[in-house]
Amino acid sequence: MGKPSKQRTLADNEAKAVGRMLRVSPQKLNLVAAMIRGQKVEKALADLSFSRKRISDDVKKVLASAVANAENNHDLDVDGLVVAEAYVGKNLVMKRWKPRARGRVGRIQKPFSQLTIVVRQVEESA
């Protein structure tokens, strides 16, 4: 006896991947996510390859995972995939302390983020 299977929340022509515990602030990660939103997958992968942002390698891994999910789990055509959604959420924040002058302390916050990428297959109109 197990849990009942959950209904699929995405459409039949969509697949998603989630990257959790990415060590970057959500604001910085959203800059990279906005760069690939709405683009074709091959152009998004090329843009991430040549991006100078540190987190772009992790975003590229999540996008590649979404493409692999679309191909292997949902039998979608890889050539017709578009990044339909790329949104960022907060995760935990590590609190650290740095000694300051006159016996005081400075609080350092080290935030983590999570990234969700949804790819959608679109039909080529000729």
Key phrases:
126 residues, Ribosomal Protein L22, Chain A
Shape: flat
Number of domains: 1
Structural class, judged by helices and strands? alpha+beta
Distance between the termini: 50 Å
Main sheet: which strands, in order across? 1-3-2
What is the fold named in CATH at topology level?
A: Ribosomal Protein L22, Chain A
The number of distinct helices, counting runs of at least 4 residues, comes to: 3
Count of DSSP strands: 3
Textual characterization of the structure:
With 126 residues, the protein is an alpha+beta fold. It has a single domain, classed as Ribosomal protein L22/L17 (Ribosomal Protein L22, Chain A), CATH 3.90.470. Helices cover 29% and strands 36% of the residues. It is built from three helices and three strands, in the order βαααββ. Helix 2 (41-49) runs antiparallel to helix 3 (56-72). It is flat. The model has no long low-confidence stretch (mean pLDDT 95).
